[in-house]
User: Fold these one by one.
Assistant:
Number 1:
Amino acid sequence: MDSIAIHSLTPPKGVNSYRMGDSDDLVMVDKFKYFPPGKSFNGEHGIFFFCTRGMVQFEYDGTTIKLQKNDMFLYMAHSIIGNFLTSSDFVCRQIWFSRNELFNININTNISLADMTQLKLNPVVHLDDNDVSIVDTYFNLLCRRMADTSSILYYDIIRSLTGTTMLELLSLMRRSRKIVESEYQDLNLPNIHKRHIIDKFMSLLENSDGRIRKVEFFAKQLNITPKYLSTILKETMNRRPSVYIQLFTMKAIEYRLRFTDMTMQEIANDLNFPNASFFGKYFKEHSGMTPLEYRKKYH
């Protein structure tokens, strides 16, 4: 059998899958053919899907997604995906990556919340022939380098190649975003007001750098009620404002734990936590480990 099937939303193993050692933090999968019909998944990895043949249809956080040949789709961690329908000739490639690996390859600093917003609203990007050629080159090179563990700088090479690959993919997504935004402006859609509110909210959240965690503050800056802000985000992104606030707060904390020598008290003060104890409880609640445990593992 020369294909890989999926039975749970965890990186598959076996023929045509490539990973760094035994880690599931970064996994390349080729010649993937089978999704179990009728099952829904909620995963902790992000996943790039590249449809290379046939078609697939599925539900993604309540929205129907269709992929055909040369379509790229990004699954964002902790989203609900399921109800797969595939053609008999369906084949795809996948790149699985964990949140921690994004820090290891230093791609987090290049991804903005505006990117996340666009990818949630329009998660499918169609690749032209030149795009496909570039993606194929990176994918094949990464698989080849992952399979050869003899290099002294093995992990550095893999992460450098992965970072460059993801920058290419991010570039394609931003190009697609500009096209979509242009179409919105040309059509003058009735919901463009809601789109502007979302964009402004994401911009305010990004500028806060994890220091502001009250929905009421952001709603006031937007001259709307917290309830209306929550309604708009739920309708368009299937997420509450607090989810994005938590996500960006954790990103800010993780960066300081990984790349600075700030003490727990200094981080708590910098991010406007009442005290170091409250900061520690907040981080453990959302990460499963204490700040010191996280620093020891990833610093």
Number 2:
Amino acid sequence: MKRLAVYCGSSMGAKAQYEQCAKELGMAMVERGIDLVYGGGKLGLMGVIADTLLSQGGQVYGVIPEALRDHEVAHQGLTELHIVKDMHERKAKMTELTDAFVAIPGGIGTLDELFEAWTWRSLGYHNKPFALLDVDGYWHHLSLFLDGVAEQKFMSEERRKLLIEADDIGDVLDQLALACDDKKSQLIW
């Protein structure tokens, strides 16, 4: 795994642990030689993880829609900043640039990006792993909800198992790296 897309909030959230997670994840990525692919913003957890990697000599690839760039939320100090037309192009470009995806705390944009990566994987548009990094129980209720979706037969157990879940940065990076090494392509309904 050379590049990791991190989905996260454009705000800091309610708990200091979220910011700490963004910093620690950024540091761990630099230590492992993993570049960041993210939404290109300078605000919130997005800005924290980008700044952490940059301050430690890491490479950061941002992808931001024109409208957000024009609202002056684009990070100006990145390795590369890709300006795209809209959110659809943003997600497609991030998928093109990355080897894997992880979501740390964030809101509906984070969920949108994670679920689209999951859907695209399930439909065979890519074969890249994705994960939730749980910080202080942030994703707990979502995980329970997803279990319920599978129990109610709106998602297969196999598809449910595609989502890697961990509450430890080293563990989630290890699991994603291992999944990147597994090159078999499959559709899971």
Number 3:
Amino acid sequence: MQLTQKETDFLNDFRDQELLCIEKYEKHAACACSTELKNLFNSLAEAERSHLKTINQMAGGTVASVPSSLSADNSCCGCASYCDEQSKKCDEFLCRDMLASEKHVSSVYDTGIFEFSDPQARKMLNHIQSEEQQHGEKIYAYMKANGMYS
């Protein structure tokens, strides 16, 4: 795949967003009070690493095959048992921050998808965007299950 300058610029932006998400998920996992949230954030960091790998491949001119479907696992990791309100508030802040990040990343992909001429590249970017939306759904489900979202 031959990339235009605009496509290269978008891939660089996608790469920056994925790196930021990875760093935030790792740092937030380390700060999270509940084991369930730590596990969720670590899992989402791993998914972001997969996105980064795909973006780097695209920057090198290769578009991997788009997976046939999204992961069907949208289940919440369950209710956490918080020993105090301060711990719950801390985790709520981390969740709100990552939910806002996922919303932003999804919108960046939404804009960028339209700038790519290669149909396979657009399909792959659409797939990544859909996974970013699933990440937001998982965070929302955790927050809802733990009384953090009204």
